[in-house]
Amino acid sequence: MPKIIEGLEKKILSNGRNLLLKEGYKKITMRQVAKECNVGIGTIYNYYSSKDDLIASIMIKDWVLLLDDSFISKCDSCINGLEIIYEKISSFSSTYRKTWKEYGNISVLTADRHHYLIEQLNQLIKPLFERFEIKNNDNLSVFISEVLLTGGTREDISYDMIKPFIIKLID
């Protein structure tokens, strides 16, 4: 009977993330992750079928944390809430920008998932609009989702650059 290791998947994701950020996409190996977790490489493959599968799971876990909406009740304005979303996207992008560059053809992957990401952000923005009684048709929150995602993933666009436009849109 195989030995059950409590919390192993969490440990794999945590150690894998640390190695990914330290070593980079090209240098990280499943063997390194197994060594960091003190398990055999086969055990890692029981959880993740490939390095890409593991790395995608690491990024998805961080993206899900980004989507946590507990900050909404603490915001003092809609603009403040949108800035928090922007900063979360920017932080996520900064964390994984090197990985995306090393991976190569990330644009194909991003294009396939872009609509899904916008919808997830839209679901975060709608309650913010409701809390601050911002008149919203779905187009406004989708458009702002697009602006935040695009701006937040680029190093050359700060929130201060887009803030005046957002203020005009929600007034």
Topology:
Elements (H helix, E strand, L loop, with lengths): L7 H16 L6 H8 L3 H7 L3 H16 L11 H26 L2 H26 L6 H15 L6 H12 L1
Helix pairs in contact: 1-2, 1-4, 2-3, 4-5, 5-6, 5-7, 5-8, 6-7, 7-8
Question: How would you sum up this structure, described in words?
Answer:
The protein is mostly helical. Helices cover 74% and strands 0% of the residues. It has eight helices and no strands. The protein has helices spanning 8-23, 30-37, 41-47, 51-66, 78-103, 106-131, 138-152, 159-170. It starts with 7 loop residues before the first helix and ends with a helix. The model has no long low-confidence stretch (mean pLDDT 92).
Which descriptors would you attach to this protein?
mainly alpha, 8 helices, 171 residues, 0% strand, 74% helix
